[in-house]
Amino acid sequence: MAEAKYLYQLLTDDEKDEITVAFMEAQERDKFCHELNRERYDDILTSLPEGDFRKKITNLRTETLSRLDEVNPVIVSTQKQMPDAARVTAAQARLKAKQEG
Predict the structure, then answer these.
(1) Which sign does the torsion angle of CA 55, 57, 63, 65 carry?
(2) 20: which residues sit within 8 A by CB, 6+ positions away?
(3) Residue 31 in contact with residue 64, Cβ under 8 Å?
(4) Please, which pLDDT band fits residue 2 given cuts at 50, 70 and 90?
(5) Integer CA distances (angstroms), 14 to 8, 11, 51, in order
(6) DSSP 51-88
(7) How far apart are CA 41 and CA 54, in angstroms?
(8) Distance CA 41, CA 1 (A)
(9) Which of 13, 27, 36, 92 has the greatest number of beta carbons closer than 10 A?
(10) 82 phi and psi, to 5 degrees?
(11) The predicted structure's pLDDT at residue 3
(12) Rounded CA gap, 35 and 78, in Å?
């Protein structure tokens, strides 16, 4: 049985756009940080001798790959929920103004 679509009474379309855009930005930040970490760990592992620290970096790299496996589908699904480009730009401008204000 399909859930009835909720009719938001208080959130405006602009606010919903801002929430969606801010969420996507957070997911992209998360993905970017994990990709930076993966690159860093890959680089470290090229010259790190066997031992406890290598095991630790290897485990961190594995955890990072796992996090990327989690964040990637969230981004794909969120892309489908994003407003059109003009509304995204407008939401970004409003969010920036709120941060600066």
Answers:
(1) negative
(2) 78, 81, 82, 83, 91
(3) no
(4) confident
(5) 12, 8, 53
(6) SHHHHHHHHHHHHHHHHHHHHHHHHHHHHHHPPPHHHH
(7) 10
(8) 47
(9) 27
(10) -70, 140
(11) 86
(12) 19
Q: How would you class 51 by CB atoms within 10 Å of its CB: exposed for 0-12, middle for 13-18, buried for 19 or more?
A: exposed
DSSP 8: -
Sorted by sequence, the CB contacts under 8 Å of residue 30 that are 6+ apart come out as 67, 71
Residue that has been written with the tokens 């930005």 in this structure: 25
Q: 34-80 pLDDT, tens per residue?
A: 999 999 999 999 999 999 999 999 999 999 999 999 999 999 999 99
- Alpha-carbon span 51 to 34, nearest angstrom: 24
- Where residue 51 falls (left for φ over 0; alpha for ψ -120 to 50; beta otherwise) is left
Tokens representing residue 25 in the block = 């930005």
* Rg of the chain (C-alpha set): 19
